């Protein structure tokens, strides 16, 4: 008897909807929080200047005006960098969440299908296991149109979680732009200096990247056949 993976319509729509909710929340609730970082920093600088002006007016004439100006600028810059870093981390966290939810969808789908077929797949929930089961059911994930972007996504998530390593080297080959930051006309590779992916803004990821990965995962579930069978009896 041949085994099958059966992706009925309601289940396909359920998986897509789960991803759409993540995309909607990220786009409508989180991105606006960081959309005015420069304006926030400017307002913060104005507030500091106003507070220091009051201090000067209260009689502290010995305070050097140039020193105060430098202090205000430094504080405002640090505030802007803090907002930018948290925006970067937020994008990274939600890209990771998107990927992990999709991988858990794959595993859940396989285990669910296995139970319907009377198959116990055991406790292996690795991504390689999921790929192998699909392959056994004549669905090679690596030949799907969405695969290239999904593989890039998985590499990026590994780099975000673990920083330098094999995934980082592979990601550099396909997305060198992630590692190149233009600062005052010079190109810097922050990760090579910091050896960290989250302590500093080491990767040039943007909200557009989140959207591209979301589109690839939706395309995956859209393109997967309704029924996939093994080529042999099990």
Q: How does this model look, in words?
A:
Helices cover 65% and strands 8% of the residues. The chain contains eight helices and four strands, in the order E-H-H-H-H-H-H-E-E-H-H-E. A two-stranded antiparallel sheet has the order 1-4. Strand 2 (181-183) and strand 3 (186-188) form a beta hairpin. The protein is elongated, with a radius of gyration of 24 Å. The longest helix is centred in the middle third of the chain and has 52 residues, at 65-116. The relative contact order is 0.17. With 234 residues, it is mainly alpha-helical. The protein starts with a strand and ends with a strand. Helix 1 runs antiparallel to helix 8 and helix 2 (37-57) packs antiparallel against helix 3 (65-116).
Number of helices: 8
Strand percentage lies at 5-15%
- Count of distinct strands: 4
State Rg: 24 Å
Could you list the spans in which at least 5 consecutive residues all have pLDDT below 50?
A: none
Quickly give the structural class.
mainly alpha
The largest sheet, given as strand count, sense and whether it forms a barrel, is:
2 strands, antiparallel
Kindly state the mean pLDDT as a whole number? 89
H and E string = EHHHHHHEEHHE
Gross geometry: elongated
Distance between the termini: 6 Å
Widest sheet: strand order? 1-4
Portion of residues in helices?
55-70%
């Amino acid at each position: 008897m041949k085994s099958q993976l059966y992706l009925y319509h309601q289940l396909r729509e359920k998986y897509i909807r789960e991803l759409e909710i993540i995309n909607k929340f990220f786009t409508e609730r989180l991105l606006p929080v960081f959309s005015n970082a420069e304006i926030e920093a400017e307002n913060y600088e104005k507030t500091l200047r106003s507070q220091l002006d009051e201090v000067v007016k209260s009689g502290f004439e010995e305070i050097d005006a140039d020193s105060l100006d430098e202090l205000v600028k430094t504080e405002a810059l640090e505030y802007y960098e803090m907002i930018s870093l948290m925006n970067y981390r937020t994008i990274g966290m939600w890209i990771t969440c998107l990927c992990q939810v999709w991988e858990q969808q794959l595993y859940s789908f396989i285990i669910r299908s296995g139970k319907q077929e009377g198959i116990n797949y055991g406790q292996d929930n690795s991504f390689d296991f999921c790929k192998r089961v699909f392959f056994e059911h004549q669905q090679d994930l690596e030949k799907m149109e969405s695969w290239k972007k999904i593989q890039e996504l998985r590499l990026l998530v590994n780099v975000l979680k673990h920083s330098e390593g094999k995934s980082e080297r592979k990601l550099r080959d396909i997305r060198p732009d992630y590692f190149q930051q233009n600062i005052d006309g010079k190109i810097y590779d922050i990760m090579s200096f910091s050896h960290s992916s989250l302590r500093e803004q080491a990767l040039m990821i943007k909200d557009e990247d989140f959207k591209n990965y979301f589109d690839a995962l939706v395309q995956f579930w859209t393109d997967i056949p309704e029924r996939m069978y093994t080529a042999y009896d099990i």
